[in-house]
Design brief:
The chain is of the alpha+beta class. Helix content is 32%, strand content 34%. Strand 2 and strand 3 form a beta hairpin. It holds the Pfam family ABM. InterPro entries: ABM_dom, Dimeric_a/b-barrel. This is Heme-degrading monooxygenase HmoA.
Length: 104
């Protein structure tokens, strides 16, 4: 199995800002996925908390993610999303095992 470094962001948006946050996230998303160490990212909306989103991105390794995290591209990406955010947190992890689903 190939090692994957995973980042999970919990994003809290200002009341009513969710649709604009989603639109801008889609518009600026290639600034993340164009990075050579990125393996893709996903945006999820919480079904339990209004205005809460989770972003998961997978990376080849932690140094590749940290390189992106400290890049001008990441700063520009964050600045475009910042007006819609009221708070959040980040968790990082290494995928240890993966059990793929069997096709039905």
């Amino acid at each position: 199995m190939t090692t994957t470094f995973r980042v999970m962001l919990r994003i809290e948006t200002h009341p009513g800002a969710g649709p604009d946050f989603e639109r801008v996230w889609l518009e600026v998303g290639t600034s993340v996925t164009d990075h050579p160490a990125n393996r893709g990212q996903w945006l999820q909306r919480s079904t339990e908390e209004d205005g809460v989103y989770y972003i998961i991105s997978d990376w080849t390794d932690e140094p590749g993610f940290r390189e992106f995290e400290h890049s001008d591209g990441h700063v520009a990406h964050r600045q475009k999303l910042h007006p819609y955010r009221s708070g959040g947190s980040m968790a990082t992890m290494t995928v240890v095992h993966h059990l793929p689903a069997v096709a039905a």
